[in-house]
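dumping the sequnces here before i forget
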Amino acid sequence: MTATITNAKESLSQESELRALRDALHQRLDQLLPAGGERDRVGAAMREGALAPGKRIRPLLLLLAAYDLGCDKNHPGLLDLACAVEMVHAASLMLDDIPCMDNAALRRGRPTIHRQFGQDVAILAAVALLSNAFGVVAGAEGLSDACRAQAVAELSAAVGLQGLVQGQFRDLNEGATARSEEAIADTNDLKTSMLFSATLQIAALAADATPAVRQKLGCFARDLGQAFQLLDDLADGCSGTGKDINKDAGKSTLVALLGAEAVRSRLHEHLHSADQHLSVCQHGLATRRFMHSWFSQQLATFS
Amino acid sequence: MTATITNAKESLSQESELRALRDALHQRLDQLLPAGGERDRVGAAMREGALAPGKRIRPLLLLLAAYDLGCDKNHPGLLDLACAVEMVHAASLMLDDIPCMDNAALRRGRPTIHRQFGQDVAILAAVALLSNAFGVVAGAEGLSDACRAQAVAELSAAVGLQGLVQGQFRDLNEGATARSEEAIADTNDLKTSMLFSATLQIAALAADATPAVRQKLGCFARDLGQAFQLLDDLADGCSGTGKDINKDAGKSTLVALLGAEAVRSRLHEHLHSADQHLSVCQHGLATRRFMHSWFSQQLATFS
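..and the predicted 3d for all of it:
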């Protein structure tokens, strides 16, 4: 009984901490992407892409991991680094959604950016968000120049031909044909784990973590990315996610290959493994709590 | 007579120096963007976009300006910085050409990237080139970490909402309506001068130039960008440029507003002013020679 009350209290305090962090992220994104005049449609599209209510998984992960690694809660550049990662993520969603890619109509419960602003503006806004993100990282306060340069390199690697771009290309071009489990996992790595990894490496740079910790964070990111992508595949058949449903129909996903139950069990394996990577490095309480509660909530919505 | 022979000799030696630099740039771009397997269509599109024979104005400008400012010709990172600027330029051309933007069929004498590889691949390749460029700058050798971070910030500013992205948006959305001379010049600044400016600022960072020199380089970049854009407008009606002709028909350009002769004279005013900015800072011989001979050659082809 006491344990249950303690858990409930912890969960409440975690929820309110996450709410406060989400508010801070929103406020800082709002400052970094100031509203322009009425004719500034690219600026408006950038704001809509980055500020529309989202889960903010990546920037929250960056903040929580940095705190877990001992980074000062008042670090002057940490929020900016988190916002930069969210800008990259928002840019990638805007591009994934355009007609010649996934041709999606709905994202975060709203019409997609190209549906609101036109395809030309959506593409330009994505490029500007991406480019802005690198500028924000390069100018983040409270970080040594060496860490800034390394953080730019991490982000660049996560976006480029060995990251998001390759993941999206494979998904577009190989998703419709039969793929092995390994091929699907590789694509999921590129689509999701690479940006998680950059996110955590940037947190580690801000917290001045050791190479050993950084290596463990890399393993954690890979498991987390896999779990995340499996959750996304499981969610595809469900309404209420704020995205188009059944986009994966006919697509070679692990759900199609192994069935939903096997995928759920594999998801839990990845979470368990992710957990272990963090526990070995003696850090990661807030990060782990966040990860577990988030996955529990999401899995509960479509069980 | 002697002066003419000296000029001819200088011109020959300049031509062979430029050829050697262009070869070095091509070779380094080839290394930075290695050919992938047969299925790596994004990688192939990146290579085609960056390696197709181009004028290499921006990277040459970066190298020559850095040499003029006293940078060692064996600086280990200078070529990489120049390649990064060319990657950004190539990415911007690939995006400008796609159907929802300028819908161009021909570029550098070849079918545009989306015509060769499809629109999805063209967009992904542009994003990867752009992201790669930031990574190359962040890792450039022989530069202090502070200079790397500043160079990333310069490049980010040149691409984003106050640079190429805004220039392309205005050109797309306001080009068809009547514009004032000032509005056209502003758009040309965004489309062209901003990346020239970043190019020269990065050269200045590599050469450890003073703030006063950097300020003059900024003024030089603005004039050069304006001259460049006027040349581009003058060239639009001509064949043999390797691009679609008459793309500006019905567009509000300075050629349409003032006529070709007035634009030629304005172009020369900008070149003169550019010259003066460089002469004041007691540097810039190779840069100025390059600029003058390039404009003379180009103007001669369609006079």
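Strands of chain A lie at 106-107, 110-111.
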